[in-house]
Structure formats: structure tokens, C-alpha cells
């Protein structure tokens, strides 16, 4: 009897331990970093990194490209479907491969090898640096509304002040990524308020004019055809959504696996609704021809026409608040991607070095130095905000294409769909294929100038990759695929530089 009781107790204890172990295993599957960022912080990071300078100049940029009301609405529809599919691809990848915490880099490396993975990480990194330079130009251009000494944001004083801001933010991030993200929450709330005020002001004062909205619905006779107008909207619309993948990029700092996908979805829905409202309302206030000539940020001019000078002041203040957060957010993103790539032995070893705050100090400092170089180029070439964001879009499309292609391939091969958080196979195949087609379409819309910019910026990365391969004692280029990519980048970069300096097809 006692023996049986003892055995029963032992069996019960073993069962208890088994259940405990199962619970522990399930919990461990769900947790990435026990002290990491929760859903709210991740969502704020997505919103902050997405709502940057683009929305404040979008209306003028679309109008300057020749897009009328019908083209803008169709462009928004294409953008919504395409970016939604791309967002779902990132979300699906975070569920299928939570181990690939480097996101943009890791997906390309897992799918296509180290060199393609390096280019994906390098492209995302350079795009982030270019984005911050465009943000800095607009930031001081907006300050120029209050302090004319800053001009359009690319004069000597603006570049000097922007340099100070970049290095101060780099120091803040060296204090720790999670701490910097905490500051970002406050900035996010502060910069959404002026955007909301724009919508409320237009509606409250009944400034939306349907006659203006429909007056040039299809454009002037003899102008650009509808297809060309739609294509002209693509770069600007993609630009305002860059950053939507932020939660994936910093997923290594998330607390739970499921929060990465949720934050991405919540961030996308929030910014899309806000963007679309602002865009539609603007087209009912200012005719396209007039809007095309508004100074950057064009939203200031729109609201000034609607409610007077106070409107321009509100928008320019909103730009400053928005870009303060964007500059901080992109310093974090620029630091994270090379850091993850170095941990996976693709970037040189020094990029994986951290300080006592567990911040990737080398990547932070190198990224700040690259931004400093681009700021100098902006001053010497009088480069505009629009030019630098076009460069940023061109370079970020490489990691977008690679990530979408990887998701499409794993879904059709049914790889990893037996995991707890895996999406439905049919849904994954649809979004993987659709996002890949969309990203290829975006590459096509960039045209030859986009290819020229991309190859010139990617050529120096070959040396960086060779340095890493030498340090890790790895073969640099494997197979015909890598050789073709290297040769194409070098040849096209040389040809692009020749065309630029000969004046045949200048990049700037």
C-alpha cells in the first residue's frame, strides 16, 4: 500500500515536472528577451520610424511629379496593397524564423547566401544613413521658417548644426537601445499631435472644397498620361512607409515573438489611416499646379492657405518634433543592422563590439561618421531633401526585394510551417508572391537613375565584405551568382560615375 502510494506520488511528481517543463518550453518559445521591449514600445518605434519627414512634404512632391487627383488615389490603392503585402511578409518571417533577429539582413543571408545577405544589410544601413541626412535637411529647413538663417536646411550653418545633432543622438544611443526607445515614445506622441491638428483644422473650419478636389481630376489636356502620373507617385509613397519594418529589424530586443508581428500591423494601420486622410484633404484645398510650387514642407503651405499663418507655424513645429524622433529612431536602426550582420560573421568583427550598456558602440560611431560624410556632400552639391530620400528608397529596395523573395520561397517550399506561431500556408504564399512582385515593380519605377545611385553606393561595400571574409577565414564569393553580382555592381558603378562626371546623365 505504502509502496503503491509512494509510486503514485513519484508518478504524480514526475507528471508535475513534465507539465512544468512543457510550460517552461512553451514560454521559452514565446520569449525572445525577458527584459525586452513590449508591444507598446515596439509599436511606438514602428510609428516613429515611419512617420518622418515624408508626410509633411508628400502633397507637394506628388503634385511636382505631375500627379492629379485620380492618379494619386490609384497610387494610394497600389501602395496600400503593396505595402500591406510587404508588411505581412515581414510579419510572417518574424513568425516563421524568430531566430533570425537581424531581420532584413538575416532573411537575405538565410535565403541566398552571405554575400547577398551582406548587400541586404549594407543597403538597409546606407539607406538609413541617407534617410537621416534627408531628415536633417528638412529639420533645419523647417527651423528656417522661424529662424531664416538656416535657409533651406543645406547651408553651412545647417550642416554644422545637423552634425552636432547626429553626434549627440549617437551618444544617446550608446547609453542603450531600450533607453533610447523609451525616449522615442514621448517623441512619437508629440509629433502625432500636429498631424491630427491638420486633419481636425481642415474639418472643423470646413476648408475642404470638392470643386478643387474634382477640378483637375484627370489632369490638363496634353499633360502626362494617367500611367505616367501613377508611376510618378510610387517613390514618394514608398518613402513615407519606409520604417514599417522597424519592429522586425530590432526584433532581438523584443520581449515576445508575437509582439513583433502585432507591432508591425498596428503601426501600419495607424500611419496609413492618418496619411490617407491628410492626402485626400490636401487635394481639396490647393489646386495641383499651385501645390507643386509650395516650399518644402508643402503641408505648411497647405495649412497656411486653409487657416492662415498659424497653420504654417503648426506644421513646421510638427516637422521639427517629428524629425527629432525620426533622427533618433534611425540612429538606432543604422546601428542595429551592421551589428547583427557582424554577429553572423558577415560585417567585420569590430562591428559586433558592444559597450557596458550592451549598445553596439562601433556601428553607432561608424554610422554617425557615414551620415557626417553625406551631410558634407549635401552642402557641397546643394543636395535637396528630395534627392537624398530618392537615394534612400533606391538602396532600401535591395533588402525589400530579398526579404520578399525569401518569404515567397520558404512558403512554396513549406519550410517551418509546423511551428507554433507560423501563419497559414496559403496566406503566406499569397503575401510572399505579391510582395515580391510589388518590390520588383518599385525597382522598375526607380528607373536608370535609381540603378546608377544604387551601384555607386554599393561598390564600396565590396571592400567591407572582403575585409569581413578575410577576418573570418571564409571564402568571399561562392559560385557564379556572387561573381555576376560583383561584376555587375563594379561595371555599372564605373559607368554611372563616368556618365555623371561627363555631364551626360548627372546623378545629382
From TrEMBL:
Native source organism of the sequence: Fannyhessea vaginae DSM 15829
Short name of one Pfam family: AA_permease_2
InterPro entries associated with the record: AA/rel_permease1 (IPR002293), Amino_acid_antiprt (IPR004754), APC_superfamily (IPR050367)
Protein's GO biological process: amino acid transport
Any one of the GO CC terms: plasma membrane
Localization terms from the record: Cell membrane
Keywords: Amino-acid transport, Cell membrane, Membrane, Transmembrane, Transmembrane helix, Transport
Family of the protein in this entry: Belongs to the amino acid-polyamine-organocation (APC) superfamily. Basic amino acid/polyamine antiporter (APA) (TC 2.A.3.2) family.
Protein name as annotated: Transporter, basic amino acid/polyamine antiporter (APA) family
Transmembrane segments: 39-59, 65-87, 122-147, 153-173, 185-205, 230-254, 266-286, 306-339, 359-381, 387-410, 422-444, 450-468, 480-501
GO function terms (MF aspect): transmembrane transporter activity
Transport among keywords: yes
Membrane topology summary: Multi-pass membrane protein
Record carries keyword Iron-sulfur: no
